[in-house]
Amino acid sequence: MSKHSITFVVNRKKHTLRVESHETLLRVLRDRLDLKGAKDGCGTGDCGACVVIVDGAIVNACLMLAVQARNRKIETIEGIGSAKKLHPLQRAFMREGAVQCGYCTPAMILAAKNLLESNPNPSQAEIRQAISSVLCRCTGYTKIIRAIESAASEMRGSRK
């Protein structure tokens, strides 16, 4: 197997690693950087549990090779808030009971964050479209959509 040296920024921190050609971004995030928020669900890009934001776009980390992340900016759930200062989406998901089992929650929050950064006042249809690549087996998505609407309102209020 050939190794490649890559440098990328994850959650505003620069990393340089040697990776195998076949290593996925998901494996590198979870196993090498100990960022466990992106989940290893299906391995085929169907469930969306592994969603991260790469250069402002939602990406299934299980389908992206780590070498493809060279010189890119990556954001994971670990990078959007802390226990002391939760992101408005994290607060809204808790407040609205949108967490359920929690398996899809990091990916849902990242998909919603990506949407709200480009569209601070989305319709329910736009919210549904933005989260459509992330499968939730626990809910009918009602609480998730309500949480995203609530966070959007909070975030619009803080921008004034």
Could you give the count of β-strands?
A: 5
The biggest sheet amounts to: 5 strands, mixed
- Give me the secondary-structure category: alpha+beta
Q: Give average pLDDT, whole number.
A: 95
Identify the CATH architecture of the largest domain.
Roll
Regarding quaternary structure, what we see is single chain
Strand content: 15-25%
Low-confidence stretches: none
According to CATH, what is the class of the largest domain?
Alpha Beta
Question: Radius of gyration in whole Å, from Cα?
Answer: 16 Å
* CATH structural fold name of the largest domain: Ubiquitin-like (UB roll)
Count of discrete alpha- or pi-helical segments spanning 4 or more residues: 5
Instruction: State the share of residues found in helices, binned by percent.
Output: 25-40%
The CATH homologous superfamily of the largest domain is termed Beta-grasp domain
Question: What topology does this entry show?
Answer:
Elements: E1 3-10, E2 13-20, H1 25-32, E3 51-54, E4 57-60, E5 73-75, H2 88-95, H3 105-118, H4 124-131, H5 142-159
Parallel strand pairs: 1-5
Antiparallel strand pairs: 1-2, 3-4, 3-5
What does this entry look like structurally?
It is a single chain. The protein has 160 residues and is of the alpha+beta class. It has two domains: 3-79, Ubiquitin-like (UB roll); 88-159, Orthogonal Bundle (DNA polymerase, domain 1). The chain contains five helices and five strands; from the N terminus they run E-E-H-E-E-E-H-H-H-H. The protein has helices spanning 25-32, 88-95, 105-118, 124-131, 142-159; strands at residues 3-10, 13-20, 51-54, 57-60, 73-75. Strands 2-1-5-3-4 form a five-stranded mixed beta sheet, with helices on one face. It is globular. 38% of the residues are buried.
